[in-house]
Amino acid sequence: MESKKRRGILDRLNAGEVVVGDGGYVMQLERRGYVKAGHWTPEAAVEHPEAVRQLHREFLRAGANVIQTFTFYCSEDKLEISGNVSNISGAQINEAACDLAREVANEGDALVAGCVSKTPCYVKSHSETKVKAIFKKQMDDFLKKDIDFFIVEFVDHVEEAEWAVEVLKTSSKPVGATLCISPQGDMHGVPPGECAVRLVRAGADIVGINCHLDPLTCIRTVKLMKAGLENAGLKAHLMIQPLGFHTPECNLGGYTSLPEYPFAMETRAMTRWDVHQYAREAYDAGIRYIGGCCGFEPYHIRAIAEEVSAERGFLPPASEKHGLWGAALGMHTKPWVRARAHREYWENLLPASGRPKCPSMATAADDYEK
Amino acid sequence: MESKKRRGILDRLNAGEVVVGDGGYVMQLERRGYVKAGHWTPEAAVEHPEAVRQLHREFLRAGANVIQTFTFYCSEDKLEISGNVSNISGAQINEAACDLAREVANEGDALVAGCVSKTPCYVKSHSETKVKAIFKKQMDDFLKKDIDFFIVEFVDHVEEAEWAVEVLKTSSKPVGATLCISPQGDMHGVPPGECAVRLVRAGADIVGINCHLDPLTCIRTVKLMKAGLENAGLKAHLMIQPLGFHTPECNLGGYTSLPEYPFAMETRAMTRWDVHQYAREAYDAGIRYIGGCCGFEPYHIRAIAEEVSAERGFLPPASEKHGLWGAALGMHTKPWVRARAHREYWENLLPASGRPKCPSMATAADDYEK
Amino acid sequence: MESKKRRGILDRLNAGEVVVGDGGYVMQLERRGYVKAGHWTPEAAVEHPEAVRQLHREFLRAGANVIQTFTFYCSEDKLEISGNVSNISGAQINEAACDLAREVANEGDALVAGCVSKTPCYVKSHSETKVKAIFKKQMDDFLKKDIDFFIVEFVDHVEEAEWAVEVLKTSSKPVGATLCISPQGDMHGVPPGECAVRLVRAGADIVGINCHLDPLTCIRTVKLMKAGLENAGLKAHLMIQPLGFHTPECNLGGYTSLPEYPFAMETRAMTRWDVHQYAREAYDAGIRYIGGCCGFEPYHIRAIAEEVSAERGFLPPASEKHGLWGAALGMHTKPWVRARAHREYWENLLPASGRPKCPSMATAADDYEK
Amino acid sequence: MESKKRRGILDRLNAGEVVVGDGGYVMQLERRGYVKAGHWTPEAAVEHPEAVRQLHREFLRAGANVIQTFTFYCSEDKLEISGNVSNISGAQINEAACDLAREVANEGDALVAGCVSKTPCYVKSHSETKVKAIFKKQMDDFLKKDIDFFIVEFVDHVEEAEWAVEVLKTSSKPVGATLCISPQGDMHGVPPGECAVRLVRAGADIVGINCHLDPLTCIRTVKLMKAGLENAGLKAHLMIQPLGFHTPECNLGGYTSLPEYPFAMETRAMTRWDVHQYAREAYDAGIRYIGGCCGFEPYHIRAIAEEVSAERGFLPPASEKHGLWGAALGMHTKPWVRARAHREYWENLLPASGRPKCPSMATAADDYEK
Question: Which residues take part in binding Zn(2+) (chains A, B, C, D) (predicted)?
């Protein structure tokens, strides 16, 4: 069913292009009223397709070259445990999500990635057979539809990610694999370099990091993956889709160990200017698939696209509604706001929290455990 | 054209009901890629109706009883000065915005408010004739469509708001008027109590405050308006639609005088728990029309609706995707996250900024001017 | 017994000279191990005269023109209630303190001020007769020794201060009176302007503010006193001896209502550069007796003397060990420390707390009471 | 000349006793007006012996078992380079400092340690002969007087410290050696464990860390030294005299790289309660010589002595002026202050800075250099 003319993800990365990823779905749709925090399941693809479609469109308009299917936590075992959805099957959600992603991707120059994430079954059973069967079922749902490649994401044990990659590679489509781990390694202590080697040996075409930690920390982890691959004489493309939050206190635990997770993360949100810095550092680290995860809203994705616009040679559609580095403030009536219409102002601003009774850092839950 | 069965805004307020307002459009649509900061004009109603419709729906779903037309800064003189739109007229935007608001309002139990805001003409000409002509033109656009009442908002000179009210009252529809002023009064120093008296004498049925300052400060100002009305022996309903940001440093200048305005306001965003406190204090102050302005996203409106759900007797549709006070965290896999599934945790949390090199308060631009 | 050649406090102030006061004794001697927090009584004048003498000397060396007797809370009723001293009488302490102050004052160009502070008797009995008898007794102790003038300080009811002034004026010596009140007035709500008028009418030659609040707030209060005197057609010299701590949260309650009082005030301590700003603003407000209270260490007094050195025409002895505005850093081995050897660096520095889990402001205990 | 009855430093440590060190001299005497920042030389021992004697006494009274001679930076080459002293020789200072330390030590149960610190000659010449000659000259000054043992301190190249130890051991007196290094090692990258081994092999009886970094970081470094000694099969006593400031941003550079050094360090000062935690963690790490360096005032030393009072079996003299854990607040007139008269309050307090426009962490100068 796939369009013949569409240039695939590997065509683009092999050509040295920067691929802009999309942002985070579940936290943003929670704020919009369509996802339930705690469960974080994607039944909205069936229940409220207009809401999912609109968010896809905003990411596309912001410059995303990939629309990920809204299928987070959409394995049958996870849906069952969550208990959030009774009358909708995983297959229904997966299929609806593929259609929505395809519809919007076709409105622009974007590819559709079918996404799988970690399964409760892995920790519970540790059975390769069972876990692979779950990934196989989800893959089969996707293959009924027109998707361009796969992404394995939000997995914190490299072994489970290897199993997912092995399953998905049976489809002959490209596979990207991102772990949600820290520079210290996965949940069993496997270092990032070794994780990358194992994922590539399992068949992954693209490897990297998503979620759990802030952008600059995730770049450090991807650099360790890159070094691991180089030491092993392996090659793969690198991708990154970090949190859109400042999380200086976290290490192994990730942002779920912060006291503010998940309902008071506002204070930690990145500005668009933080994202410019992130995109530049990711690019300089050799990463060419650059997107975001939880906390990345459409304007954050636009900031990535604007930062790499010289390399890409164009701006995204949504930049028609954005003066670069605040340029559109130049027509403001207040002189002190006009004075902010340039890069130097925003790059050097240290934004105040407006909360004088709040601290700047918290004690993470995984610190409590020590 | 108006539906006979619809209960009007005054029917509701006279009956003592709590009316939940909607949230902020321009800042949220800027982040979604449809509004240009600096200009803040609403051409998206024509250019990208699906984006405006979706945000209307999210507010409706979050519990809003009023859908405001997306017509901010949509007077002919403002559109011209802004220079952001060339091939779309103000009348086109006003009419498209009315249709979008009506379409979504009819999906639930909501009213449509046609909104006008301050005009550049007032400060420039100070001509009652010219300013009233501008408001009359915008009103005539609205009256071609099916709207339920009018709101005058974001006006910082009470005199201009009086003129707007006088024009809109010629329509015989109810009129609400909210000023964007501080407890110190309007830009000419007219105190809030006197402002309220003048607005009611001009014909306003509902008076209050919107935008510019944080919720608790705006409540203080509305209380001063209420006291002014009582002293004058006048009666009117009270409404409030404050910023969704912490702005402890501002006084006369409002949030545009903060260094973070408009592109680094993230740190100051209110949590849903801040909104619970706000909604309760607004209710206790006798305010019955409770909504939000810039910074209020759909989940903030839901928090208002949840806080007053006992008084209203029902929860909004979007609460099906929200455990009250974090209840849905009770099924989380991490024990320390499960421990957050209750009100006491979130009410007492002082969220960290995650930005240890940033201060907690800024020097506002209007302080610099002293 | 008084030296004929010594120029008195009024000679100096009438001549328009700046009089530099000394700093705080009880908090500093608590840290040195000689005063017990909670009691704050001055038995060290008898028990450890070398420690009191040394601190007097450090203030003299820092530029102080007045050495206050170390007789805080040394009324008989306070000593009895405190229960901290059993075998030493108030008279012994008062007399020893006068001798120590005189000894050190005579080592330089300084005067001795005999100091009285508020009595428990006032709040307990509210009897003018009893309270005046207590002040009379302490005055009689002082008059056995060679003191130059009196200071009434740390009184928060203007009435009690009036009574003290009336007693002390029977000695025919000059009397200064400082209240520990906020811009909102004394504990009975008497505004600062009226307090000043009443104190001058009671006989005070110098009036002002000491302790309880930070320097800039205390300057605001002294300005209100000055305005009150001007409105009443009265004249008096102005003095100020504020806290050496930042206390932005306090209003009526003063620093004892801060959670950090008294054992975690370190974070709030003023730098010498904060003191430069204070001394300049005090001078510009027309205050000519400028010193400090709790938190003012010798180097803070030196900063006052250095700030007004142009007006006074000389530097204090301790400036031989201080490069103005950090000049002595010019010979440091590290280039980045050498770069700090000038005024602009220190005036613009916003010092970090080094405590990322601490907030910048606290909830004061008197706010809890609301 | 040494008293026969005095129990030496090794007698005490070998017996398992906790030895409480004294605090910091140069920064405290700078604030008192006797030392010039930038130079930091100890000419006050000759110029103002009463000031040095008083600070010695305060540390003794706070519980110190060792009085260090006030001879920091008192090598001939350093004095010459500094240029701060013209008419006083190093020998005069060294001898006067020994007399002052002895006089005060004899007022209690304390020993005198003759102290040498790093020499400019080391970095300039790197000549073992020249550097050893400088240490020999200073040692000879000390040996004319009655001192009990030597301390080498504030050296950041382990090689220089080895040379100092080798010289001082020719006296047959015990020698302690503390480096001012981070957990990352000395200025040539020699790790702490290896530094400890080299110092013990050079003859040091006691090894550890002083100055430059905050207490908990210094404990980490001493633990690394301890592990290094254990791995090498060596034994030595451990000592620690850290900064009395919070310095979370520093690593190699130490506190001189902080923007606040040296004139705005107030905000970072440790409270007495921070010191309790430090003393306990130092004790638990097996360190038995526990004192302080810059920033440790007499009340901080008292906090060490109070924390280890159970182990030592007694409280220091200055505790007669201190209620343990704030107990003396129990008689305060304000109920909310009385409520602070217990350990739980102070252990859990997160003190506010009172500076809402200041950040909580700074960018250290050695970070700028990267």
Answer: 211, 293-294
